[in-house]
Design brief:
eight-stranded antiparallel sheet, single chain, 4 helices, Jelly Rolls, binds 2-acetamido-2-deoxy-beta-D-glucopyranose, globular, 16 strands, 275 residues, alpha+beta, 36% strand
Length: 275
């Protein structure tokens, strides 16, 4: 068999695996929760948009809750001068001791890069920020942002490249999200008091409304048996670890683990390699 036909076969096997997982529909899977008529669903449920103007932002949330899983969504962020806008895309449980896994996209003036801000809350406590630049302009095209949440770890991915891994450090006493189911949330809102260069750059309301788009929502939850083999591989493989190191070396701009001013007595336990 030639390389081309082998590649085709592998491709077919792979696409049937993808097809076997759940492909979402925004009407069925999400509720538009705030912002009046600013959030919109189009194309029979295949496309969703959020918008922000001087009066209000907008948001949506999943109807279902998830306890572990892989969640994929494609986002196309506010283009042009998006300074002061924040597009938050996250999973969260409820209540004062909630767990949360966050992607937040901080807009910028035209030509300057977005910042991707990430955080993990356990038992109501966050303070675990890592920030990145992206290796593309996230407002030009759709890109896939994913969360893999397993009992062993949480992995953040951008176009399937892992950018952050938060390991379960229960052994050294760090709480890990493992019992509270989470919903998926997204919102587009104004945060020009802090978002762009620490609040120095204000939102240009003459460019409003600001709009972000969502498509291709997909969930593999721990119960979907057709993807069990993928689900059961626990660790990142060697190429994924290499790509994670590449992102952390060239694109990470802030890491709480190395912020000695904040943690003068040493980095939090989950930052250490030795468990
Ligand atoms: C915006 O661009 C400036 C200049 O390149 C950069 O320092 C900053 O991190 C960017 N992002 C935000 C959210 O301010």
């Amino acid at each position: 068999m030639g390389i081309a036909s082998l590649a085709l076969l592998v491709g077919l096997a792979f696409s049937s695996l993808i097809a076997a997982t759940y492909a979402g529909n925004f009407y069925q899977d999400f509720d538009l929760t705030w912002g009046g008529n600013r959030p919109k669903i189009f194309k029979g449920g295949q496309l969703l948009s959020l918008s922000l103007d001087i009066v209000s932002g907008s948001g949506f949330q999943s109807k279902k809750e998830y306890l572990f899983g892989r969640i994929d969504m494609q986002l196309k962020l506010v283009p042009g001068n998006s300074a002061g806008t924040v597009t938050a895309y996250y999973m969260s449980s409820q209540g004062p001791t909630h767990d949360e896994i966050d992607f937040e996209f901080l807009g910028n003036v035209s030509g300057d890069p977005y910042v991707l801000h990430t955080n993990v809350f356990t038992q109501g406590k966050g303070n675990r920020e890592q920030q990145f630049y992206l290796w593309f302009d996230p407002s030009k095209n759709f890109h896939t942002y994913s969360i893999i949440w397993k009992p062993q770890h949480i992995i953040f991915l951008v176009d399937n490249t892992p950018i952050r891994a938060f390991k379960n450090a229960g052994k050294v006493g760090v709480p890990f999200p493992k019992s509270q189911p989470m919903r998926i949330y997204s919102s587009l809102w104004n945060a020009d008091d802090w978002a762009t260069r620490g609040g120095l750059v204000k939102t240009d309301w003459s460019k409003a409304p600001f709009t972000a788009y969502y498509r291709n929502f997909n969930v593999i939850d721990s119960k979907s048996s057709n993807s069990l083999s993928e689900w059961q591989t626990n660790e990142l493989d060697a190429p994924s670890r290499r790509r994670l190191r590449w992102v952390q070396k060239y694109f990470m701009i802030y890491n709480y683990c190395t912020d000695l001013k904040r943690f003068p007595r040493g980095a939090p336990a989950e930052c250490r390699r030795s468990f």
